[in-house]
TrEMBL record:
Source organism of this protein record: Rhododendron molle
UniProt name for this protein: Uncharacterized protein
Length: 71
């Protein structure tokens, strides 16, 4: 993906990218592809300590008819 090693991210996505980038290229990791499916992440300051954040997210998804798969 072409990122230089001089950059070190502290964001969640950056940490995932760094972990994937630093893993062995020849290592076979199990992957599961689900057609027409997306990953959604809700990230924000003090979200873990604020009641109702995930309820609001899931309610909004339900109102528009989205199906949520939890694993």
């Amino acid at each position: 993906m072409g990122r230089t090693n001089s950059y070190h991210s502290t964001s969640v996505l950056g940490l995932i990218y760094n972990t994937a980038e630093n893993s062995s290229q020849s290592e076979d990791l199990p992957a599961k592809v689900i057609p027409n499916c997306s990953i959604l992440a809700a990230v924000g300051q003090k979200m873990a300590s604020t009641p109702g954040v995930s309820a609001a997210l899931f309610n909004a998804l339900a109102k528009v008819g989205e199906v949520v798969l939890m694993n």
